Amino acid sequence: MRHSIIGSITIAIVFFVGSGCSFLEPEPEIPLLIWYGDPAPSIASRTTQELGDAGFTIIHNGTHGRERNRIDLSVADSIGVKLLVADRRLLDAAAGKLSPEAAVDSVIEDYHALSSLWGYFVAENPSRRDFYRLGRIQARLAEKDPERPAWFFIPGPDTQAADLSMPSYASYLTHFLEVVRPKILAAALMPSGNYTAPPLYFQHLDFLSAVSVRYRVPFWGAVYCLAADPFSLPHHSNLRLQAYSALAYGARGIHYYAYQPPHSMRNRARSAFLRENGQLNQLYWELKRLNREIQYLAPALHDLAVEAVYHTEPVPQGCRPLPNHAPIYRIDRENMLISFLVTPRGERYALLVNKNTSRGTRAEIYLGQSVNCVIEIGKNGLFDRQTVWSATREQDMLALLFKAGDGILLKLE
Question: Phi/psi at 341 (nearest 5 deg)?
């Protein structure tokens, strides 16, 4: 087997050819953003280091003023991660308390020269009456600092229309995209209280994916690991299901919602990653492993477009069953998701997800006549690509082993 480390190398290697030189491009990386509350200044450096070590590429650590943000950006720069900055001036502009243009100009003047700045947090759960102001902020940021996105975190499709002051969620979302014109679509897609997928979870993912394609705005999946009482911490299978399902529907990034509660809220919520004694808990190590897996898959995933997503029985409401004419036409296990994806060059892939978060499974995958070879894309560092089936075999069936909530990416040739 050929060993390679992919997805995490960010330093270009310089080599010389004759009298000229060339640069090897870093491997594509999937952005992994963590919203981790508001660590106290005394532990901000340690927290940033821990999150960087866990594979998060972007950190949002709360709303602050200029001085605290500049300190956090300096810390992030020394560690090699990016920050999504929430400055009170932008939040005030979003709420109508400051001129959008004046707020944007002053914020950019303070931060744009800092290399660890990834983007600007502007609004969470905006209402329709905010859209015009948010559009002005977005336009000004795009004009003055076009390489860094504005971040708007909008309600998820399960939000009641009455709460949005709109006839439906679809009208809310399309109006938001047409007026604000964001560079990224980030919506809350909440699991159930026990971190399992609610009945309409996959229908909502399908909706966000379709809107993303229609408006040419990449959407990011959401993974919730919020340790709010009285619920226990999620199992690693719950996190995997959320992440791999989002990727199967075409997500271009993952937004993790964790929590590091301020002292005033310690009686209502617990840290997602810390035990009572301040030591890192099991969830931290599970997310570190998951993030590493995702980045191993990033070179294959980064230019894939979703052709269709199907489900085995029981098929979730609003979703489609696997047809018998598909390249993979049958899977002999319940609660499986399969996404067919394609590159701009026409190369075919399939991402399969075990939706059962209680146990792993062995699934038999039946291949259509158009498939001559199946290559598994490695995600653990032990191999890059490995042929797991070819047409020279007597059977058209391939058996795969899935962990609970796990995803496996295959190339179909």
Answer: -130, 160
Helices 66-79 and 100-111, packing angle to 10 deg: 40
Instruction: Let me know: does 225 contact 287? Beta carbons within 8 Å.
Output: yes
Of 342, 351, 260, nearest to 306 by C-alpha is 342
> CATH 2.60.40.1180 in the chain, residues?
305-412
Distances (CA, A) of 98 to 94, 102, 110: 8, 7, 17
* Residue 14 reports pLDDT greater than 70: no
Mean pLDDT is lowest, of 53-62, 104-113, 131-140, 328-337, for 53-62
Cα distances (Å, whole numbers) of residue 120 to 86, 142, 152, 209: 6, 11, 9, 24
Q: How do strand 305-311 and strand 348-354 relate by DSSP bridges? A: unpaired
Q: Which of 120, 147, 146, 145 is nearest to 134 (CA)?
A: 120
Within the chain, which residue ranges are assigned CATH 3.20.20.80?
Answer: 28-301
User: Rounded to 5, what percent of the chain is helix, strand, coil?
Assistant: 30, 25, 40
C-alpha triplet 226, 47, 29: angle, nearest 5°: 80
Largest CA distance in the chain: 70
DSSP conformation letters of 362-403 = EEEEEE-TT--EEEEEP-SSS-SEEEEEETTSS-SEEEEEE-
Identify the band that residue 8 occupies on the pLDDT scale cut at 50, 70 and 90. very low
CATH topology assigned to domain 305-412: Immunoglobulin-like (2.60.40)
Instruction: Compute the distance between CA of residue 382 and CA of residue 385 in angstroms, rounded to an integer.
Output: 9
pLDDT in tens, 182-213: 999 999 887 776 777 888 899 999 999 999 99
State the average pLDDT over residues 86-113. Answer: 95
Convert the pLDDT of each residue in 68-99 to its tens digit.
899 889 999 999 999 999 999 999 999 999 99
Whole-angstrom CA distances from 289 to 75, 123, 249, 353 are 24, 31, 22, 17
Q: Which among 175, 177, 174, 221 is positioned nearest to 202, based on CA atoms?
A: 221
In this predicted structure, the answer to whether residue 163 has a pLDDT above a threshold of 90 is no
1 has pLDDT over 60 = no
Secondary-structure class of domain 28-301 per CATH: alpha beta
